[in-house]
């Protein structure tokens, strides 16, 4: 007996009716349109008054800088806008991070430098700079801040190595800051980094903690020595004008006395010459006068001898010594 199998017809479930206006193609079109619109809006960008913008289009830098205002370019992905504040004072640390000491982080390692007399000093500071050329700043170096920090540290070590530790810890701070600032600026200009160094400030300049007490004792002794020098200098400044005044007064008096003595001597010499000219005419009287004047000036300083009457001795002062009159009794 043969059985004949008939194929069973396929039964399809009725599909849900589509809502009006809700085709998948139309919905995708709306999504694409909204995405394109949002992407297109990224072509608009704003530059603030204190900024300038550098635009890279397809990775290549455009030659023109974008100043403050609203600008239109290509959407994101095609254009890259990099804004920089030209007048902002930027800071980069040398040694300890910026603000670490202000925050009380004394445990931060501060680099030590070797001085010219082989002593160690702890030095940290800050380099302050401004951006002058945005294009050079962005593309001349990978990390300008890191380069400035490393260069300032190298220049600082070179400057400290040429000085004594006493100078470094006392009077050399302004010189070190000026030398490092000039050296870093020359190096940055040579590489074309587009920055202007505003200044270098050394925040910490001290001996290592292990020898800080000894350095404080030395500094105290140096201050005492300087105080003694200042006191001595002050005393000298007070006494020297007085001494100079007294010396000038004595010189003036001596010059006056010299003029008086010279004038008196000249007068006596002229009187003597006059009497000498008159000597031949009255020699006896002149001898007597000279003898009396001499006795008048000499006898007050000598022991006096009085001759009494019974001695019958006479002394005639009218004749010079050796004259026959002096031998009469």
SSE layout and pairings?
Layout: H1 24-41, E1 44-47, E2 51-57, E3 60-61, E4 69-72, E5 79-85, E6 90-94, E7 112-114, E8 120-131, H2 134-139, H3 144-161, H4 165-169, H5 173-191, E9 195-206, H6 212-278, H7 283-298
Antiparallel strand pairs: 1-4, 2-3, 2-5, 6-8, 7-8, 8-9
How would you characterize the overall build of this protein?
Helix 3 packs across helix 5 (173-191). By secondary structure, the protein is an alpha+beta fold. The N and C termini lie far apart (222 Å). A hairpin with a 5-residue loop joins strand 7 (112-114) and strand 8. It has four domains: 40-85; 90-215, Tetrahydropterin Synthase, Chain A (2-Layer Sandwich); 236-278; 283-327, no CATH class. It is 45% helix and 17% strand.
**Number of discrete helical segments:** 7
Structural class estimated from helices and strands = alpha+beta
Query: SSE string, helix = H, strand = E?
Result: HEEEEEEEEHHHHEHH
Oligomer classification: single chain
Count of DSSP strands: 9
Average pLDDT number:
76
What does the radius of gyration come to?
A: 55 Å
Relevant CATH superfamily of the largest domain: Band 7 domain
Query: How far do the termini sit from each other?
Result: 222 Å
Give structural attributes:
7 helices; 329 residues; 45% helix; three-stranded antiparallel β-sheet; rod-shaped; disordered C terminus; single chain; disordered N terminus; alpha+beta; 4 domains; Tetrahydropterin Synthase, Chain A
Concise structural overview:
This protein has helices at 24-41, 134-139, 144-161, 165-169, 173-191, 212-278, 283-298, and strands at 44-47, 51-57, 60-61, 69-72, 79-85, 90-94, 112-114, 120-131, 195-206. By secondary structure, it is an alpha+beta fold.
